[in-house]
Automatic annotation (TrEMBL):
Gene3D superfamilies: FAD/NAD(P)-binding domain (3.50.50.60), Fumarate reductase/succinate dehydrogenase flavoprotein-like, C-terminal domain (1.20.58.100), Succinate dehydrogenase/fumarate reductase flavoprotein, catalytic domain (3.90.700.10). GO terms for cellular component: cytoplasm. This is L-aspartate oxidase. Keywords: FAD, Flavoprotein, Oxidoreductase, Pyridine nucleotide biosynthesis. SUPFAM superfamilies: FAD/NAD(P)-binding domain, Succinate dehydrogenase/fumarate reductase flavoprotein C-terminal domain, Succinate dehydrogenase/fumarate reductase flavoprotein, catalytic domain. Its cofactor is FAD.
Amino acid sequence: MLTTDYLVIGSGVAGLTFAIKIAERFPDRKVIIVTKGDKDESNTKYAQGGVAVVIDKKEDSFQKHIQDTLIAGDGLCDRAVVEMVVKEGPKRLQELVNWGANFDTNSNGNYDLGKEGGHSEYRVVHHKDITGYEIEQTLLRCIQQLKNITVLTHHFVIDLITQHHIKEVKEKELTCYGAYLLNEKDNTIKAIQATNTLLASGGIGSVYGHTTNPVIATGDGIAMAYRAKALVKDMEFVQFHPTALYMAEGGALFLISEAVRGFGAYLRNKQGHRFMPDYDVRAELASRDIVSQSIDNELKKHGDTHVFLDCTHLNVLEFTKHFPNIYQKCKDLHIDISKHWIPVVPASHYLCGGIVVDTYGRTSVNNLFSCGECSRTGLHGANRLASNSLLEALVYSHNIFKYLASNYTKHYQIVIPEWNDKGTTIPDEHVLIQHNLKELQALMRNYVGIVRSNSRLQKAKIKLDNIYQEVEELYKTSKISVSLCELRNMVNVAHLIINQSVKRKENKGGYFNIDNVYNTSQKSF
Ligand code: FAD
Ligand code: SIN
């Protein structure tokens, strides 16, 4: 069994930022970061647009950023959280810069600020169109310098350890004591005992299959927190990004950043009509929920598979300077953005809900913290404002650090039982895992997508129950594998999304149910 002061699950912006801060402050304390893939594989690595921060105090103000966040969240944000996050933003961004992150500047030496949907001002700090990559690499360089941090790559966290696993603990209140890990290289499972555990395990995009997220985004942290009986909320608010590059075969889709629309690109349907002004006065720069729902409506109206992003009127040289990665990707696919429209389609992108935390990142389970996309802070409400996610992770990792820097109690010594795999066999039925995964993803796309209905949600419940039974049976009888655990986690996440959708009787932000149109705050399609 391994022991550590701080167990950090995830090596994206949330996990790494916390690890650096706590390890720097307490060189005599041990930090272990566990990550299931290569150390940089994460949603963070693929972030394009940037970090929303109020920099330009002449045109912009905290008040405007707060207001934009509240409007995007459609009445369900926690105002105190929004104010705290927005006001902390500039300090947290400066920290990244101090650690070596490089953000684009203009000819005056000021940050070159971008604009995205729902923002009333230019306030998105970025590194070309690969902001996440720049942040991830900067943080990993810092991690390397810190001797008290160990990074375990290709280690998959299976489950959190609570008193349910430990006989001698009689406490009634739920407490986390660490986690069980699967070493993907030698297939061994060990326990890791931790004084404090941080879940920074990212998003859920893979539950839908067609997603801007990498395949690792399987909602593991949310599923294990849910199994540990932590509070999980707002799961119905799955955010669909309006403009993923359309690929007939689906799967993980390349993102065409919202910043491209901020740069002046138009959305057109197959008939060539620029449709967004028909739906919202902000046109292409309406908030993401509205743009995705409008595209969905256009697709259904015309029976099309995709719409287009028209950049042909934009200055190509400037475009390539701002978006070299997107330009190159299009070029590789023989899309010349100066002549051709880019085919795009909405895709699952971000989860606004997740593990409920307070402003210190504390979950409802003692010694268990959560940060980043897997957490639900109250910042996003029913729909996240673009580029507020990296910001949220930076602010909350700092809050958790501050809290833990002044609150540290070592666990008493306990014996954590070894992982019990008696009665299981090596699965010879890998095909069953693949089959159930495909079925789950199709079910979520077809019945629990951008536009939902009561009858589709009821059908989804029944179909999911069949998948659940089969997957649980496999889990109980098979030797643990990453693909099986991920599938089990995705089934748990799907269950949470469907059940919490059924309970929502009013359309808000990213949640739209055709049977709730009379309870809609903003719009109907
Ligand atoms: P992640 O960066 O996803 O990291 C999660 C980590 O947890 C990974 O290291 C993963 O391996 C690990 N992990 C997960 N499960 C396990 C397990 N069972 N065992 C061990 N390790 C595990 N947001 C913005 O604010 N601005 C943007 O411009 C922006 N652009 C985006 C573009 C794309 C294409 C995508 C996909 C997202 C974008 N977002 C953007 C959202 C933002 O990038 C993410 O919400 C944010 O990076 C999440 O950070 P995180 O640290 O919470 O999780
Ligand atoms: C994008 O660049 O469009 C993504 C921004 C985000 O998800 O915040």
